[in-house]
Structures are given as C-alpha cells and as structure tokens.
Amino acid sequence: MTAEVKPSSPPLTERQEARRRRILHASAQLASRGGFDAVQMREVAEAAGVALGTLYRYFPSKVHLLVATMQDQLHHMHTTLRKRPPAGETAAERVAETLMRAFRALQREPQLADAMVRALTFADRSVSPEVDTVSRQTTAIILDAMDLAGAPTPEQLSAVRVIEHTWHSALITWLSGRASIAQVKIDIETVCRLIDLTGPADATEGPSRR
C-alpha cells in the first residue's frame, strides 16, 4: 500500500501572514515575561487581536505555537548573523563563534528560551513538521557559518547534526542551571572541531568573501 501524500497547504495571504506574525509576537512577549506557563492560548489570542478559534486554526496547541515561535526567533537570528558574518579563520572557529552569538541572544531572554526549549522537548509526532523546520534552520545557520567553497560532504553534514544536538543539549543544561556560560563555550568549541576532521582543511584559505 502506498503512503497517502497530503496536499501542501496553500500560501498565506498578506492578511493571514500579518495575523500569524501578530500571534507569534504575542506568544514571544508572554513567554518573555513568564515562561512556558505564561503562554495561555486565550491570552495569546487576546494579545494578538484574533478569535480563539482562529488561533487554533493556525496553531493546534501551545506546543505547536511555541515551536513556531522558536522557528521565528531563529529566522530573525539568522538574518542578524548574516549581516555580520563570523570572522574566524577556519570553519570550526566560525561555527563556534556563530553558535555562541546565537546562544547569547537567547541568554538575554531566558524565560522565552526556556519556553521554546520546553515546547521542543514536549513535542510529539503531530509537531514533527515544525520541529523539522527548527532543525533545518539551525543547520542553515551552521552551514552559513562554515562558508564552504562547495556543497558539504556527507561527513560534514553528519558533523553538523552532532553540533546541532550538542548546541541544543548545552542550551538545556544551561537553562536548568547545570552548566555555566563558560562550560557551554568550551563544549561548543570542542564539538565544532569535528568540522576539521570531516573534510578538506580550509585553515589556509580563510573564509570566502561574500
């Protein structure tokens, strides 16, 4: 039996996209003030100026909403990082610098970071598309920082996945008070050295000029 292919959702209209952005902004604001528990669907709807039923059509649950909020935050973070690319000589150095800059951005909003990470932890299969998007965005941030001359090799992509897992784990341990910023930095720099072991060394080339 062949798997049923679900039709892709039609693109949002300009009005729908504006509504979605208001919802995500309201979610981030409530999470910034009170963390995961402060994000109540009725309060999000009121803050965004939409009906509760409308909110549920966009996001079936609070977990869906907060994972989408993380997706939105990563998108903005990626845009900011692209405006000021890392200056390290090697791909490993550039990735470590980028991830620490992203980490410090989340550090400035610890309640929001905690809410988003908890949502990722609670996500079940129904939230897989949103979780996959978060993962793809994190991968894109890392690959941009690597600034490779060509397409990444399978080994490099494997290293990127390990780095992504470590970054996520480091964020969880910091939020739970089990790791200091200094320890997070050491862990990130250590795992990023995997990049140097998975492809041609680029230390002599330096980053390409965009």
TrEMBL record:
Gene3D superfamilies: Tetracycline Repressor, domain 2 (1.10.357.10)
Every HTH tetR-type domain range: 17-77
GO molecular function, one term: transcription cis-regulatory region binding
InterPro entries xref list: Homeodomain-like_sf (IPR009057), HTH-type_TetR-like_transc_reg (IPR050109), HTH_TetR (IPR001647), KstR_C (IPR041642)
Residues in the DNA-binding region annotation: 40-59
PROSITE patterns recorded: HTH_TETR_2 (PS50977)
Keyword terms, alphabetized: DNA-binding
Protein origin, superkingdom: Bacteria
Keyword hit for DNA-binding: yes
PANTHER family, alphabetized: HTH-TYPE TRANSCRIPTIONAL REGULATOR RUTR, HTH-TYPE TRANSCRIPTIONAL REPRESSOR KSTR
Protein name: TetR family transcriptional regulator
Source organism: Streptomyces agglomeratus
